Amino acid sequence: MSHAPESVRRALGAAISIEAGHLSVKDAAKLASPLMDDLVRLAVFGDPVEKDWARWVIWEAARAVGTYSASIHDFYMARGRGDVKGVTVPAMNIRGATYDTVRSIWRTALKLDGAAIILEIARSEIAYTEQRPAEYVAVILAAALREGYRGPVFIQGDHFQVNAKKYKVDPATEVAAVKALATEAIAGGFYNIDLDTSTLVDLAFPTLAEQQRLNYEVGVDLTRHVRGLEPKGVTISLGGEIGEVGTENSTVAELQAFMDGYDRTLEAQAPGMVGLSKISVQSGTSHGGVVLADGSIKEVALDFKTLEDLSRVAREQYGLSGAVQHGASTLPDDAFYHFPRTETAEIHLATGFQNMMYDHMPAALRAEIYEWLRANAADERKAGDSDEQFFYKTRKKAFGPFKKQLWALPADLKATIAAAYDAKFTFLFENLGVRGTSAAVRRYVKGPAIAMPAPGTGGPSVDAAPDDHEAGE
Prior knowledge:
Layout (H helix, E strand, L loop, with lengths): L5 H7 L3 E4 L2 E4 L8 H12 L2 H17 L2 E4 L2 H9 L7 E5 L4 H15 L5 E5 H6 L4 H15 L3 E11 L2 H6 L1 H18 L3 E5 L11 H20 L9 E5 L10 H18 L8 E4 L22 H15 L4 E3 L12 H4 L4 E4 L1 H10 L2 H14 L10 H8 L8 H5 L3 H22 L5 H7 L29
Parallel strand pairs: 3-6, 4-5, 4-11, 5-6, 6-7, 7-8, 8-9, 9-10, 10-11
Antiparallel strand pairs: 1-2
């Protein structure tokens, strides 16, 4: 333990020991105590050495007690076979106050005996929330330990997206940027990644196969890159996407054109390589919802028949878990029970949690953030935007600059927000069929729990930060 900084040694007390780069948990009960609060704060706000050591301690302590980052691939393959039914996995993007918010998720999971849950973050969110992959993983695992959660934890890179404009100018550089992010994410413990090359779909071509060609060809290139980085024994769960969220609704023919081209290309280039586990589609939503001039959200005409048909074809023809629905967190409450009914494999939830945070934060802090947005996001204001529309669309950009303030909210306010989150996650997990999924997750997801090398012994730099220009999430 001689190389760990004093601040980390002090946080561990007698609960954890480190000898010759090997960690042992001496008192597992202490992992669900303020000890973990101190460690995770060092993992996020410490100096570079403190961050390295705190993140490593959290990872290895979690592994020691049976809580580990894992791939949901085998669970999704079981879903594709029909061995798992009636659950839509919530994939949740947590942009701010991440530790406290994710603690609520694990509390709810334990209460409902649910484990079919994904925590994710998109390429663009990593940049503007200032949460690099290694930090995000450490916070999620620390929250699980704080609440006493045990078992596989699914952490996902959402919308690892190729920017169409940049690709048109310089394809190699843009694809390399996505590969660099995937490399960093996998090294940090992301074993689930959504590859988004749907931005390259070109509707100018006369046939669906031609429209989808770049989508599946670049998707195969990224697939091969990811498969080459997998830790031994891990098959990373990979998602594809056939149409940008917020555009025209997807069709069965589009799904078939993409999957046929993807499977054919992958087999030709890398015979026998494992492909996708799911496919993202468009069925009427948009990221964050459409905000009206008064700040309210426009009602969405969600096409559940499209979701049902696409999910069925994805399972029956291609062995995937089904279709994935993005932009779902701002839907009305009565929409959510339809997702497991139509056997939608996964839905992505982000903006609704952000909205709850803004609704509960102190008025003075919200006013300070809005003033910051006026000065720092003015170029994103469109002609005709009301203040309500401008702030609603841009306030996600404040999560990084105001990270410390959101982590340091008063204890009584944190308790109020926690109660609101507990109620929200309970509602979502109940309606999505997450209750009671622990047995199925543990049946199909067997590990392994990957060991990380101690800092200074050849492991990756935790704060590697390749270029992350803005992309959709």
